[in-house]
Amino acid sequence: MSAPLLQVEALGHRFGRIVACRDIAFAMHAGEVLGIVGESGSGKTTLLNCLAGRLAPTCGRVLYDMRVKGSTDLYALSEPERRLLMRTDLGFVTQNPRDALRMGISAGGNVGERLMVNGARHYGAIRDSAADWLGRVELDPGRMDDRPGTYSGGMQQRLQIAKTLVVKPRLVFMDEPTGGLDVSVQARLLDLLRGLVRELGLSAVIVTHDLAVARLLADRLMVMRAGEVVEQGLTDQVLDDPHHPYTQLLVSSVLQP
Amino acid sequence: MSAAEKTRPGDPAYNFGYLDEQTKRMIRRGLLKAVAIPGYQVPFASREMPLPYGWGTGGIQVTASIIGPHDRLKVIDQGADDTTNAVSIRRFFQRVTAVETTEETAQATLIQTRHRIPERDLTDDQILVYQVPIPEPLRQLEPRESECRKIHAWQEYGVMHVGLYEDIARWGHIARTYDYPVMVNERYLSAPSPIPKFDNPKMTRMAALQLFGAGREKRLYAIPPHTDVRSLDFEDHPFEVQHWDEVCGLCGAAESFLDEVILDDRGGHMYVCSDSDFCRHRREQGHRGAMAGHEAVRGLTEQAS
Amino acid sequence: MTPMIAVKDLSKTFVLHLQGSTRLPVFDAVSFEVAAGECLALVGPSGAGKSTLLRSLYGNYRPDGGSLAVRHEGGAVDLMTAEPRTVLTLRRRTIGHVSQFLRVIPRVATLDVVAEPAIALGEAPESARARAAALLERLNIAPGMHGLAPATFSGGEQQRVNVARGFLVDYPVLLLDEPTASLDTANRDVVVDLILEARARGAAVVGIFHDAAVRDRVADRCFDLSAFRTAA
Asked: Which of B168, C18, C123, C216 has the maximum number of C-beta atoms within 10 A of its C-beta?
């Protein structure tokens, strides 16, 4: 059996006296989509940042199966090595696309940036790639020279997804990718994400407070509360047969339209 | 008053070169480091100068630190020796050093410049000092200084091509015409200061030492003689310099950087060399442009010669 | 012969933490085996835990004790201890499940809903869709409806879409929860034929069939869950 793509050992992070997350341990294999659910303040985003190489945990290790070096602690890497890994192998999709996009640069330039950062120097090839990816996230390539500010919120999120996936990362982290979008836009984005995850065989860690999003996208679920994982398992197991009191509360709190 | 001070050239109210000797040493130490690491921006304790920021305080401090009594100084602004900035800086150094000044590029040992590199090839006994407003080529794309340092340290320069990409996407070609980013010695990305990209090719393997000073931003950097300097570009959109359909109206030069000069308010205009010394030399050698001797340009040639 | 499914001492109790930690025991010490080509019908009154047992066999519910082995690619996998990704692989390759209600992703066309399991196994999308269309037609879902999302379909139509999705791939194990509940006679017969064909090719089937006539035609054994009820 192959080594896990991501292995987390006794991970914890604290901000001063506040414990954001503690005793997190799990392994994730290539092709898996892991959902992290829990209410706001439960430490989901802190955990995600630690996993993604953006925030050094206070304790514990995040082991990533690097292409050449094999399983390596993200935070034992030198900073340039980690940055290289983060712009090639890892992707990060934020809730607010404006945090990740360059608003003064065209949509095509935003997608192409990731390629240029990784060394692409052929304008025509960069542009073709950008147009292709805009098409794949269902944005009109004819508008690739428009700035993201002229796009709607849902389109900006698609643009961010194209910008993340254009370098073909092996593992993508998403922080509430459909948060802040209205329901119909959110639904279409979920369709798109689900299709891309299948098509590309992506591995992903998705933080969400929306159980429907988790059911649709995630194979596995971790339920977090007050910085700890209280329950984990297959998504449908956790949602259909929740064992922990908190998970039962979460599941029973969902409104049915 | 000691004997040495009595014989000191220049205005006796000031130390030679205006700056005190400790400051000059500090700047020279910074320059030595800058030369040792071509293209790397060395921080220095920039002093208040008797000119406002933006008037060349960085270049002036560099010049003041390296100038000696036997130097011959040339100061140009936009290629010309007779523009306000050039005239006032030249006068400043005359007053505080009493060194000989010249408009002849070939005669100068030290050339302080704003916005141009002289057309005439410089030699290995000359030093070119640039006045730099924004020494950080990444500034427009990355506002965080800490992040810029990391990008330089680890050569994560790919992001610089985003600006060039945008140009091609919008205009069909790289429209950036000045302060066009360069790789120095294939290591540090640097700002050539706001010289036209026409001058970029002159920077590579130049025989003269090139020193850069940014007063407000408190940075020094350097390109040692005979160092490789490469302008960024794309494989399918190689770096190109500006071209003109016209030639210089005074000397007929086709290979120099031209300025457009408005002659009247009826649309009359002409192109002339921006390097006034270069243009004058050509005229002295008998080259004639279409407007040479014309009534409308009499003031122009008289002033320039 | 090695059984396809081997259940041993399986027990399940629901604990409702939000309602005074009420304990709802469902079944205890359930043991049975199902061989290839065999069809076991789960029987018992409503609330006996038939669906809970079937969902446990699919890895959807997590029983509290016992073991639950399914034959998968030459070995036996205990669903009680298997890693999530192993359970997912089992679902993709070995266990087909026709649930009581169609639960699909909104806005996906019927044809894609049905073809998806085959595509996930690596079949070319065109061929999977062609087979899906044929199967849907056999279940009397007109081609005109294949391009629509099943959300607006009637109960019986949704049920048939669900059956088609479960039968497109030749799973070695089939779990059927009331596959004929809301179907008319003609469609019920098609489903019965599908189950018999699956058995003939060697599938081990475990099902809940409310309709005694259907049960008699497809199942060769009954397993009465009411005997395993435990007191609270």
From this structure: B168
Position B140 scores a pLDDT of: 87
Residues C70-73: contacts with CB under 8 Å, at least 24 apart: C70/C4, C70/C5, C70/C94, C70/C95, C70/C173, C71/C2, C71/C3, C71/C4, C71/C5, C71/C172, C71/C173
Facing residue for B162 by CB, picked from A83, A109, A145 = A109
- A interface test, pick of C18, C55, C104 with most A CB neighbours within 10 Å: C18
For residue range B129-183, list pLDDT tens digits in order. 999 999 999 998 899 999 999 999 999 999 999 999 999 999 999 999 999 999 9
ipTM greater than 0.85: yes
Phi, psi at B300, each rounded to 5°: -65, -50
Three-state secondary structure string covering chain A = CCCCCEEEEEEEEEECCEEEEEEEEEEECCCCEEEEECCCCCCHHHHHHHHCCCCCCCEEEEEEEECCCEEEEHHHCCHHHHHHHHHHCEEEECCCHHHCCCCCCCHHHHHHHHHHHCCCCCHHHHHHHHHHHHHHCCCCHHHCCCCHHHCCHHHHHHHHHHHHHCCCCCEEEEECCCCCCCHHHHHHHHHHHHHHHHHHCCEEEEECCCHHHHHHHCCEEEEEECCEEEEEEEHHHHHHCCCCHHHHHHHHCCCCC
Q: Which domains does chain A have, with CATH numbers?
A: 1-89+171-257 (3.40.50.300), 97-168 (no CATH)
> pLDDT digit string (tens) for A133-142?
999 998 999 9
For the annotated catalytic residues of B, the residue numbers are: 39, 248, 251, 273, 279
Distance CA(B253)–CA(B279), nearest Å, equals 8
Distance CA C218, CA C150 (A): 27
Chain A CB contacts of C15 below 8 Å: 243
Which subunits have 3 or more CB–CB pairs within 8 Å of chain A?
B, C
